[in-house]
Amino acid sequence: MLLCAFVAALAGAVMTPARAQATQEANGGSDTLQEVTVTATRRVERLQDVPISVAAFSQEQLDAAGVRDIDALTELTPGVTFQRNGTAYNYNDEGSDINIRGIDSSAGTSTTGVYIDETPIQSRHIGFGNTMAFPELFDEDRIEVLRGPQGTLFGAGSEGGTVRFIQPQPSLDQSSLYALSEVGTTDNGAPSYEAGAAYGAPIIDGTLGFRVSASDRYDGGYVDRVAYAYPNSQLLADPTFTGTVDPNANWQRTDTFRLALRWAVNGDITVTPSFFYQYLHLNDTGSYWAALSNPSASVFREGDALANPSTDPFWLAAVRVDWNLGFAQLTSNSSYYWRDQHSISDYTQYLRTSYFAFYNASDGVPGTTPWPAPGDAGYATFQDKQNNVYEEVRLA
């Protein structure tokens, strides 16, 4: 509730029935073409001078393209393949697969590095689907997609490449306000909305500054979870729709909060502590049953006996120290990443089909065994928990 109140207070001034966004800089706006700089090689360089294949997107570019999540971002990036695995493993659509230039693995360590600022957040997975976390694309300084092996600078988990989410740093000499709100509709589905705001300013001019941001996004669902029946009790026939259990069930909500400080100890040393929190809740799967649906009429239905929810909170606390030695830059990044994703997947159909197929082969009469019958329900639980401590010292 406090998060929603904070967002509403800062973003309310730009909320419209359709879509609005506002950016205000204390030193005024500019229409001049700005030079793009990146840190793909762990030092600040112009994009055209970097000797590797890099795609960079600023927050202004993301807003102009309507990009709000990793799904849409990868659609703009050649060489990157991303897909949701909502029909396998855990069915709630958080399971995903990302690869760059075809370098991929379904088990073990990640082949694509995912970084928030200086900290890697990708997870390992064995056997089951990967439920890697990705930050919401709100209040980003830029996104960098590095194509090709990045093991030297970003570790063994970046065999195919690296995606970096780089957040804005607090300013020591000027204030800034960024706010965004939008409302959308889905054909034959529920409405969607987002509201968020970020503000930064110096606390002690030239010495200490801060930046704080928060956002709330709701993506309306369009797949109904429904009840069904088999014609004449023939379990191998196509099911028929009998009523809606949960309309627009596959909605999801994402809340974010970030606070960062920047302290210039002297002309050469700066200390930047930061804290980022995100909470993602998916209510149900977006996979629909073809026999119950009519895609040409925008009617999507799924007949799972149980919902397939997932909650995915994570937070990242970090302290970065930069020391200008004159001949080089010394950087230390200490961080702690905590995540506790857990979900429930409906396995009723899987269990019922397995038992029915086995016993139907033996006696040929369904419903005469003590195993699951229509109306029963079964589920499976999944969890991906991370408690990662990182320390990196780098001389560039």
Please tell me about this protein's structure.
The protein is elongated and about 80 Å long. The chain has helices at 2-11, 59-65, 70-75, 151-154, 348-363; strands spanning 19-25, 37-38, 45-46, 53-58, 80-84, 96-100, 112-116, 119-120, 142-147, 161-166, 176-184, 192-204, 208-219, 223-229, 240-246, 252-264, 269-282, 300-302, 310-324, 329-346, 379-395. The protein has one domain (2-395). By secondary structure, the chain is mostly beta strands. The model is unreliable at 1-30 (pLDDT under 50). It has a nine-stranded antiparallel β-sheet with strand order 1-11-12-13-16-17-19-20-21. A five-stranded mixed β-sheet has the order 4-9-10-7-8. Strands 15-14-18 form a three-stranded mixed β-sheet, with no helix packed on it. It is built from five helices and 21 strands. Strand 2 (37-38) and strand 3 (45-46) form a beta hairpin.
Please provide the ordered H/E string of secondary-structure elements: HEEEEHHEEEEEHEEEEEEEEEEEHE
Q: What's the total helix number?
A: 5
Number of domains: 1
Radius of gyration, taken over Cα atoms and rounded to an integer in Å: 24 Å
Main sheet properties: 9 strands, antiparallel
Structural class: mainly beta
Distance between the termini: 44 Å
Quantity of strands, as a count: 21
Shape estimate: elongated
| Poorly predicted tracts of residues | 1-30
Residue share in helix: 10-25%
Widest beta sheet: strand line-up: 1-11-12-13-16-17-19-20-21
Question: What integer is the average pLDDT?
Answer: 83
